[in-house]
Amino acid sequence: MVIDGLQYANWSEKIFRQMREGGVDAVHVTIAYHEMFRETVANIEAWNRHFERFPDLIRHARTADDIRAAKADGVTAIVFGAQTPAPIEDDIGLVEILHTLGLRFMQLSYNNQSLLATGCYEAEDPGLTRMGREVVAEMNRVGLVVDMSHSAERSTLEAIEVSARPIAITHANPASWHPARRNKSDTVLRALAESGGMLGFSLYPHHLKGGSDCTLQGFCEMVARTAEIMGVERLGIGTDLCQDQPDSVVEWMRVGRWTKRVDYGEGSADAPGFPPMPDFFADNRDFPRLREGLRAVGFDAQEAAAIMGGNWLRFFEESFGARA
Amino acid sequence: MVIDGLQYANWSEKIFRQMREGGVDAVHVTIAYHEMFRETVANIEAWNRHFERFPDLIRHARTADDIRAAKADGVTAIVFGAQTPAPIEDDIGLVEILHTLGLRFMQLSYNNQSLLATGCYEAEDPGLTRMGREVVAEMNRVGLVVDMSHSAERSTLEAIEVSARPIAITHANPASWHPARRNKSDTVLRALAESGGMLGFSLYPHHLKGGSDCTLQGFCEMVARTAEIMGVERLGIGTDLCQDQPDSVVEWMRVGRWTKRVDYGEGSADAPGFPPMPDFFADNRDFPRLREGLRAVGFDAQEAAAIMGGNWLRFFEESFGARA
Predict the structure, then answer these.
(1) Nearest-by-CA chain B residue for A38
(2) Continuous H helices in A1-36
(3) Cβ B45–A100 below 8 Å, yes or no?
(4) What's the rounded Cα separation, in Å, for the pair A181 and B21?
(5) Overall pTM surpassing 0.90 (yes/no)
(6) Exposed site from B137, B213, B226, B306, fewest CB < 10 Å?
(7) Beta-carbon separation of B38 and A37 below 8 A
(8) Which chain B residues are within 8 Å of A44, Cβ to Cβ?
(9) Other CB atoms closer than 10 Å to residue B55's CB: what's the count?
(10) pLDDT category of residue A324 using cuts at 50, 70 and 90
């Protein structure tokens, strides 16, 4: 089982075929950044068109069983997620509505303060808001996973504590390896692991030591060190692959509608666009190389299989249904 | 199995308890008249609150199997429908979105011309529009039933012809019995029956011969005459019960936002509000009387059971899933 914990590509038949070539069984895809509810629904409509057009390549998945069935049928399962809470607007009732429409992950904040929590670029982090606590409880009830990939430290620790079900950081790396604003402290990683949560390792160059020059061995040695902190069973991949996107899309991710100026986020005025991916991971066809890299740094076949997708599948099984 | 093919009550615990008292196993409830998409979603959110609050009385149903399971568990199954196509706005992609959210019936037009078809109060009826034909095909694909209760004659006949799956007139009576604008010609009833469609008999007084003074015997004799035209297996009940609604709601149904004046629809300036229900059917507790009335005019037990809900269940089974 090979599962990618996050992608936001410029979706096309080419990319869906590459998923099949790479043996990718399931992908958590971002369906919304700053899109409000109606715009998010339009994005789901676009996905419905993809599902109708490419039934031999992809299929919408709502459960771990859907993913197993897709794998058996030789198609890639697509799991929906949102990178900001904009899709629920100011309305807690939209949590269940979006879950019914297939949403399975939602970040409580993205770089900035949201109605729910604080993002990792704010100067101050007052933790989960009143609405944030209510929304986490509702997400727990229906089976929508709290994702804190772009959130600030205190908000993340409070989400881990307040959530009655394990949460995820779908795409980030340890800050102790590469101290990017988006990478996570060992304190967060330990609390995440102890609560049964999941970390997806990112291959986005800004999250990598050495950036685009990061090597497969360096990446996999970092995975091995993180396994010592969190345990193998808490680890997955979350490539953050943004394949074939124009630079205008990274600007939308960073700027949304919250400023009229340009915010470079993890980039800079000199490098405002998407950085080039590392040599060892250009697109979905490179998943087998990740498995080889994990084996080369000492993971056995079973451990590598767990990190490549088995752990995500177990987590999906526990997380996507209504609370017992 | 007792199924009501249409209600739009002012939903409350009282009414849900009356459904249980009346032995009502499933109800097709109207969740939208002139509400556009976001407003319709807000109405679904309100239903989700009802489902969460009254799990011992009601449950959302998406399939015939859901209805059987609800009956086995002693709760009333709720099936969503829309009385106008306003919820899909101008966007065919919303057909699948609303089906995913549970919508199982949608009228193509309501009294007036819509983007899809003509309503029964228009002077001219040019039949299904270009978009109407596209939307019918999409409804057929996903399993959303075409309902022509408030549509005009030609549009209705064209919907029957164009739809690849049987359609429904969820709440109306034969015009030959009571020539109201909302009741249907024998031509329509014959075409509906021949295509495998369903008619739900209305108990809304404006659709009844004698109005609020209509008797149970008179109503059931009308059902028997319609069985001669359509066959017993094409018949069900669709009470159009609007219990506990203030008169402002009947004004919303008739006027929506399409005029700044008052339109009295089936009412009049002298009688602008909801007419009193006939003595023999005040609310959900009176369903057993309908069955007795059907037996009294000569239907055998099996026929009465089919009309009281068995036929709707078979129709739901055939209609609510994706097209094979």
Answers:
(1) B38
(2) 13-21
(3) no
(4) 61
(5) yes
(6) B213
(7) yes
(8) 97
(9) 11
(10) confident
